Amino acid sequence: MPDPVRNVYAALEHIIHPWQPHRVASINNYELKAVKLLGMFVWHKHDDTDELFYVLSGQLRIDVRGSEGEVTVELGPGDVYVVPRGVEHRPRAQELVTALLFEPSGVVNTGDAVGSSLTSAVHELK
After folding, report:
1. Rounded to a whole number, what is the distance in angstroms from the first to the last CA of the chain?
2. Mind telling me which CDD domains this protein's record contains (predicted)?
């Protein structure tokens, strides 16, 4: 039996709290996650994987720390940005943002900052 069709926008309606990703679909050990973002996230990095952000609505800023200092990447609806593995970053949104994340199964949302109050397991859509 094939997996059911899932609607990303319907999935977002079920998300109550920001920064808590919900799995929309899985493919080849990767997950497509829907998430709402609001406020400032914690600085963190993912040592073993890149992280893809695809903004559906709102304006997302991702602060990135690199060898040349700190820069801010600004994303709007339809924009995609990949944070390379091992790069420290901090997403933030002054107003509600809806987005999709694409990353390997099992990736913790706070990366190496697992003790953060924002650490969240991936939720299953109902």
Report:
1. 19
2. cupin_YdbB-like (cd02226)
Q: Assess if residue 126 is contained within a domain.
A: no
53-83 pLDDT, tens per residue?
A: 999 999 999 999 988 899 999 999 999 999 9
Which CATH number is 45's domain given?
A: 2.60.120.10
Structural domain count of the chain: 1
Say what the pTM is. Answer: 0.85
Q: What is the length of the chain?
A: 126
Report the C-alpha gap between 113 and 53 in whole angstroms: 19
Residue range of the domain that includes 50 = 8-119
DSSP H or E run through 11:
helix 8-13
Chain-centroid distance of CA 74 in Å reads 15
Strand pairing class (123-124; 22-27): parallel
Stated as kind and residue range, the H or E segment containing 12 is helix 8-13
